[in-house]
Every structure is written in structure tokens, then in C-alpha cells.
Amino acid sequence: MADTSSCRSLGALPDLSIDALRDLSALVSNLLLGHPADLSLMTPALMLGAPDMKAVRDAMLPPPDKSVVHETQRFWRAASVSRRGPSEVSLSQDTSEETAKFTFRLTLDNELGAEMETRLRFVSVDQMSMLKGAKFAARMATDDAVVETTLPLSAKAVGAYVALAHDANPIHVDVRAAKAAGLVGPVVPGMLLCALSEAAYQKAAGIQNATEMKTRFMAAVPVGEATRLVLVPRGAEGAWQQARVFCVTEGNMIAAISDIRGVA
To answer: Within a 10 A sphere around the Cβ of 52, how many other Cβ atoms?
Structure first.
């Protein structure tokens, strides 16, 4: 794969089905033991499921001899944007043999309203098997940290998310594909971990409008495991306008770290 870089308009924001948004919120709410979820920050991720986004989804797939690892994810939205309506979407895309970066910008009435950036890495079986992450240490949490534990992220729950997001990566649902990629079995999509982190932040902070989330993925969460979300306030004097969310596996490994900002 030759190195490529492009920037183009994708036209109006594909229709985000009310049913899809409702189903995603219900799924995340159930996994967090019933806490209501309003995923306003990461909602644009669902636009990738639109039929006219197939070419973009295909570009996110790895070469035939490799698998894809979700390295980082960033969501941002302008705190000042309160209007709703059709947005124009543009895409900046940079790809090489080993990495790919996709930056989506959503503009409403010529005003930048939101951005979504996805960074991927294409790895061999050996490289995949070496991605173990780091242990979560108690010192990473403060006295005012909040801990949320999800229900097990079952194959049914993961399958429901994959269907909503039109995620074509078979390592989330297919045992053979996951093992062929160098994993023990299917793993939870990183975007679902983002959704859980955003919803848990809303609950802990009492803030409905998160404006930015930067997530770094460090290790896989096996399908069927519950996760522990450790939320640490990082604003002035422990305020929740900023927080760090550690997503921790049952084996006490850090699967993802999300830094989130919000407005009261």
C-alpha cells in the first residue's frame, strides 16, 4: 500500500436513524446497570454505518495479511453549537502500509461543529499477540475517584453494537478470525469502550454535555468480560470539568485511557 493523503467533501451528514441512536443509548445504559446514556459526543461515529460511507469503511480494513488495531480515538464538539440540522462532512485521510488516520469534520452553517479522528495501525499476527497493555495500579486513582463496573460485555451486546455501527472487523464476532489475527478470541470494539466511558463520565460528573474525549487503546477486552471504569477528576481542586477514565479488564490490565472535558 503506497502512502496516500487526501481531503474531500462527503456531502451532507448521512441520516442518523433515530432508532439507531435510541438503540445505542439503550445498549450502553443496560451495560451500565440502567444509568441513562446520552451519547451526544460520540454519536457521529454512527454515520459510518450509512450506505454511502461504505468506501470509507472499506478503507479502514487492513491489508489481506494483517489485522487492524485501533490506536487512538478523538471526539470533539463545539460547546457553543446548540442547533441541530444537516451538517456538511469533510474527510482528511492519510494512509500507509502500517497506519491510517481519518479525520472527519462536521460543519453546520459554515461553522465547525464537531470533529472525529480515528487512528489505526495494521499489524501482523506476531505484533498483535504482543499487545498486552499495562497493569492498573491503585496509585492511578485519587481519593475522590469513582468506580463503575459494567455488566459482562457479552457476544450478544457486542453483536448489537457491531450491527449498529456496521463494523466489518471480524475479530469482534468471529472466533476463527480473532485467533487468526493473534488473539485468544473475539474482542470488544474500541468505540463501544468510548461510549461506556462517555456515559460513565456523565453520571460521575453530573455533566450532560461532554465536549471532548481523547482515548488511547492499550489492550484488548475479551468478549464476555465485564470492565471496570475508574473515573478520576482532573479539574482544579478535583472538579469534574476534566476527568481521566481508565477502562480496566478483569485481569487488571488497562484496556483504554480516556481524557474527557465537559461543560456544566
So the answer is: 12
CA pair distance 154, 224, nearest whole angstrom: 4
Please say whether the beta carbons of 115 and 106 come within 8 A.
Answer: yes
State the Cα–Cα distance between residues 251 and 35, nearest whole angstrom.
25
pTM of the model: 0.93
Residue 19: Cβ-neighbour burial (10 angstroms; 0-12, 13-18, 19+): exposed
Question: pLDDT at residue 2 above 70?
Answer: no
Specify the pLDDT at position 38: 81
Residue type for position 134 = A
Tens-place pLDDT, residues 214-257: 999 999 999 999 999 999 999 887 789 999 999 999 999 999 99
Helix axes 155-165, 18-31, angle to 10 degrees: 150
CB atoms under 10 Å from CB of 236, counted, come to: 8
**Domains by residue range for the chain, with CATH:** 4-263 (3.10.129.10)
All cell numbers assigned to 126: 506476531
Residue 16's pLDDT is what?
A: 67
Residues 6+ apart with CB under 8 A from 247: 193, 196, 197, 221, 227, 228, 229, 254, 255, 256, 257, 258
Beta strands in the chain (DSSP E): 4-12, 67-77, 88-95, 99-108, 111-123, 146-149, 209-217, 228-233, 242-248, 254-263
